[in-house]
Amino acid sequence: MIFEFLYPLHKSANWLGFLNVLRYLPFRAICSTITAMMLSFMLAPWFIRELQRKQIGQVVRADGPATHLVKSGTPTMGGALILLCVLVPTILWCDLDNLFVLATCIVTIGYGVIGYLDDYLKIKAKNSKGVPGRYKLLGQFAIGGAVLAYAFLMKDKVPPDWWEIRTRLSVPFLAFNKHPIELPIWLYLPFAVCVVVWTSNAVNLTDGLDGLAIGPVMINAGTYLLWAYLAGASLGIDATHKFVFAKYLDIPGIERIGELSVYLGAILGAGIGFLWYNTYPAQVFMGDVGSLALGGGLGMCAVFTKNELLSAILGGVFFLEAVSVIVQVVSFKTTGKRVFLMAPIHHHYEKKGWPEPKIIVRFWIISILLALFALASLKLR
After folding, report:
1. pTM reported for the whole predicted model
2. What is the residue-wise DSSP string for 38-69?
3. Structurally, how many domains does the chain consist of?
């Protein structure tokens, strides 16, 4: 909104020439990050008090680790504050005519609504069940499918370069233009929706310890921010003398994809502000309203920046958490035996006696290493 209303004024008068700075993505991404952080710091104390006043507290799993019993009643649904602190700066600093940002925000809001209903039912019924899994997945597939179908099938709404490569897979550590893997739209579109839904639920499964999920979410967001900027950025004085980063790095170059860096900057800022209160021992929990929404947003960024496969590396912590649940369920149903002491895998380490802060920090370290490994693929091609 600030960009939409103020940037056009930079030519109207000499003294307004400083507004030309709004054209630069790094400036707006930084402003979005700072705005989200300040909003979070200012609103979080009031928000937590309101959650306490309305007795919106965490319902702990009956079969969970015994150490979690003390967390019962801790204010939850803090993800609603995160979403507010993500969406407001995005609207303020982003080009609102950008399909990539609008589609990502719609999925973020839609998945946030599903998460809110899940949290609400848990609190109302005072159990950890919430919305039945099949209905939750149905809603996620419906929202993600509708939004991605619009982005993939409406040719006049997307940049030409995106339309040309929209169904092409980018393989990590292989040059995008030299090793193209083109899929038919009827195959790629369901795959893309699965990436979004998988990422959303994987982040949700990771959100089981104080600060465990928000750390890797911020690390992933920062990585995608850099990637989105490089995919859409160029330097030069005119169209003839222009250095295009995507062409140099041989990654998918997509016009206007860089606007996603404003949205991702907001996730970084909101995450930092939330972590101040979510760090061990947490004063507030994210809840499904936050984890499903943030995971869906990251999944959309993976699809739009053509990092569907790389997201398994970058989001390796999320991937491991989700796979541990699948392995546990399949093993128990087929053999009657459990592979882990408890799933997701962070609970396995709790059962082994690891202190909660040790698990959290080590998972953060792994996430940082995976992010560096993912960024290394920019040059190692």
Report:
1. 0.93
2. HHHHHHHHHHHHHHHHTT-B----TTS-GGGG
3. 1
